[in-house]
């Protein structure tokens, strides 16, 4: 298993001086950084300005006269922001938690009992799911939700997102469980541990995998627009992504409020990603590499 | 070793929760979409088997089929722009990050360049609409209002957002290239450019192929960015309509179009078949040959 963390040191340029090559690499990468962050920066600085200042100089920093937090105030008074946030939080945390628990159990068994007849079929079924476009099953999903009476509820979203995330999570967790030494599990069984206790002994060794699964599954759930639009469009059940989308439609003339809403919608995930980027990156690259 | 009987029971119990949710809300709906596409639901008669009637309607009814082919062609363009712009830029970023010229800054660049991919499409769409607004933005031309430029413009917004994904894939692949090969090439006096194309790139071709096919699946599954910018009947004059928005209109309905669940299931099945055929063809023809070469 190759994770970002345990790579051997790369060969580095011999001299510590700034060679022309190193300068060029930094210049190109810095240009990409400006392209990546510039547009986000424009939104954030404008969200802190008054409306005339936005149109007067959209790329200027807020000054003492143009600085204003009115947009943020209006988002919280006119929008549904608090409710949207808590909906997104409930959906994302529940779906990620269910995904982590279910896929850890499944991945452990698919690695541990790999000599059992059904395992190749089950593993294949999960593997196919990594590429399966679950959105194409939307119509039957609507029918199920209607039949169960959970249309336009957060539960509908949680169930679909868990199903959507499980294949990648199982595949990813299997790569981590393969690194758990067999001796450890055999020793546990010799000491009289049953299968469940043996699983619990192996669990601490795959902790990095749990973090990778959690970060990789979180992002597409929080940012999804399709299923909130179709399965939970009611005002009480809107997630942040859908809420911001509706807000954009309703407050088209209130630019400070719009920009504030956009900033608030982006902040949590950008922060989380920055903190957990290492886990995220190893999760993303390993989950699909099978 | 675990006894076979114990193993079988334990396997079942451990796998069951994940399998149940996954089958119920992902596998079964896809399968039943395919089944639905062969039925017609009528208020009085209920569901009636109609064979390929829905498909015939989809491909022969003048307006419905014209819109479908338009969405398919647009989706191919949408994919092509992503592959031709996003994947090469991601490769360039990954190559620079692993060139050996960076030290502590490598992780910082990697994280920053991925940040746009963590934003929601609603935010990305709005940011760019603001920047390219013809009234005060950086270009004085209505890029989104012109039939020729609207689709490329939206595609490039998608590229801006998701370029971090091919970057991370190819970056991880490049990290796994053995150091001694790179070192040997360097000692032979090869330039970094030659070392990359002669040594590193051939070793990551399988991952390069994988990201191309994943980009295909993701773009053919696309919907969010187009919907966030242009709604469910994406103009001007359907020039930014892709399969995702077309599918949404058939089952959800829109102004001038009645919602039709059976036709929606038919469209879903057609999209699914296209994805399946292309992916299967790719894995059989290309990826197998690549593996044989690199092993």
UniProtKB/TrEMBL annotation, chain A:
One cellular component term from this protein's GO annotations in UniProt: plasma membrane
The compartments listed are:
Cell membrane
In terms of SUPFAM superfamilies, this protein maps to: MetI-like (SSF161098)
- Pfam families recorded for this chain? BPD_transp_1
> Known InterPro entries for this protein?
MetI-like, MetI-like_sf
Keyword Cell membrane tagged: yes
Q: Which Gene3D superfamilies match?
A: MetI-like (1.10.3720.10)
PANTHER family, per the entry: ABC TRANSPORTER PERMEASE PROTEIN MG189-RELATED, ABC TRANSPORTER PERMEASE PROTEIN MG189-RELATED-RELATED
Name under which the protein is recorded? ABC transmembrane type-1 domain-containing protein
| Taxonomic source organism | Devosia riboflavina
From TrEMBL, chain B:
Stretches that traverse the bilayer:
12-39, 79-102, 114-139, 159-178, 199-220, 263-285
**Superkingdom:** Bacteria
Q: Which GO terms describe its cellular component?
A: plasma membrane
**SUPFAM superfamilies attached here?**
MetI-like (SSF161098)
What is the annotated localization of this protein?
A: Cell membrane
- Any one Gene Ontology biological process term? transmembrane transport
Q: Which UniProt keywords apply?
A: Cell membrane, Membrane, Transmembrane, Transmembrane helix, Transport
One Pfam family here: BPD_transp_1
The UniProt entry lists membrane topology as: Multi-pass membrane protein
Looking at the record, the residues that make up the ABC transmembrane type-1 domain are 72-282
Against InterPro entries, the record matches this protein to: MetI-like (IPR000515), MetI-like_sf (IPR035906), UgpAE/MalFG_permease (IPR050809)
User: What family name appears in the similarity comment?
Assistant: Belongs to the binding-protein-dependent transport system permease family.
Provide the protein name.
ABC transporter permease
* Source organism: Devosia riboflavina
């Amino acid at each position: 298993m190759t994770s970002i963390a345990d790579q051997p040191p790369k060969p580095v340029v011999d001299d510590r001086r700034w060679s022309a090559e190193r300068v060029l690499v930094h210049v190109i990468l810095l240009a990409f950084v400006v392209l990546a962050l510039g547009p986000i920066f424009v939104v954030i600085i404008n969200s802190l300005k008054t409306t005339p200042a936005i149109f007067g100089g959209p790329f200027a920093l807020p000054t003492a006269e143009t600085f204003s937090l009115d947009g943020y105030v209006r988002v919280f008074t006119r929008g549904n922001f608090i409710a949207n946030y808590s909906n997104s939080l409930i959906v994302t945390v529940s779906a990620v938690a269910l995904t982590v628990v279910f896929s850890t159990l499944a991945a452990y068994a698919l690695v541990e009992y790999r000599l059992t007849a059904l395992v190749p079929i089950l593993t294949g079924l999960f593997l196919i799911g990594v590429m399966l476009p679950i959105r194409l099953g939307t119509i039957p999903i609507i029918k199920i939700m209607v039949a169960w009476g959970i249309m336009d509820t957060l539960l509908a979203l949680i169930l679909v997102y868990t199903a959507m995330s499980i294949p990648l999570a199982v595949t990813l967790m299997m790569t981590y469980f393969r690194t758990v030494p067999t001796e450890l599990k055999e020793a546990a069984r010799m000491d009289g541990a049953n299968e469940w206790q043996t699983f619990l002994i192996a669990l601490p060794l795959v902790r990095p995998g749990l973090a990778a699964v959690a970060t990789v599954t979180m992002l597409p759930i929080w940012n999804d627009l399709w299923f909130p639009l179709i399965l939970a469009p009611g005002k009480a059940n809107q997630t942040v992504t859908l809420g911001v989308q509706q807000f954009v439609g309703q407050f088209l003339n209130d630019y400070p409020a719009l920009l504030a809403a956009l900033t608030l919608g982006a902040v949590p995930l950008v922060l989380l990603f920055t903190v957990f980027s290492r886990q995220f990156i190893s999760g993303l690259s390993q989950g699909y590499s099978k | 070793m675990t006894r076979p009987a114990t193993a079988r029971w334990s396997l079942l119990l451990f796998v069951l929760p994940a399998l149940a949710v996954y089958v119920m809300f992902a596998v079964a709906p896809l399968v039943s979409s395919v089944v639905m596409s062969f039925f017609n639901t009528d208020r009085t008669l209920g569901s009636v088997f109609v064979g390929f009637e829905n498909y015939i309607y989809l491909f022969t009814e003048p307006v419905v089929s014209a819109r479908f082919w338009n969405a398919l062609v647009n989706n191919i363009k949408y994919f092509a722009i992503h592959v031709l712009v996003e994947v090469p830029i991601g490769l360039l970023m990954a190559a620079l990050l692993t060139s050996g010229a960076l030290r502590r800054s490598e992780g910082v660049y990697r994280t920053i360049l991925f940040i746009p991919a963590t934003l929601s499409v609603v935010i990305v769409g709005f940011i760019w609409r603001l920047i390219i607004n013809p009234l005060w933005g950086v270009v004085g031309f209505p890029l989104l209002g012109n039939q020729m430029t609207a689709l490329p413009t939206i595609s490039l917004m998608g590229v801006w957002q998701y370029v971090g994904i091919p970057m991370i894939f190819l970056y991880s692949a490049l990290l796994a290239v053995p150091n001694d090969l790179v070192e040997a090439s360097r000692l032979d006096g090869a330039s970094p450019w030659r070392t990359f194309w002669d040594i590193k790139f051939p070793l990551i071709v399988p991952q390069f192929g994988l990201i191309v096919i994943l980009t295909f699946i993701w773009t053919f599954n696309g919907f969010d960015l187009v919907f966030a910018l242009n709604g469910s009947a994406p103009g001007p004059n359907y020039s930014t309509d892709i399969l995702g928005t077309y599918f949404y209109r058939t089952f959800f309905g829109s102004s001038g179009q009645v919602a039709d669940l059976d036709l929606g299931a038919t469209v879903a099945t057609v999209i699914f078949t296209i994805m399946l055929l292309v992916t299967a063809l790719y894995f059989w023809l290309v990826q197998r040959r690549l593996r044989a070469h690199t092993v």
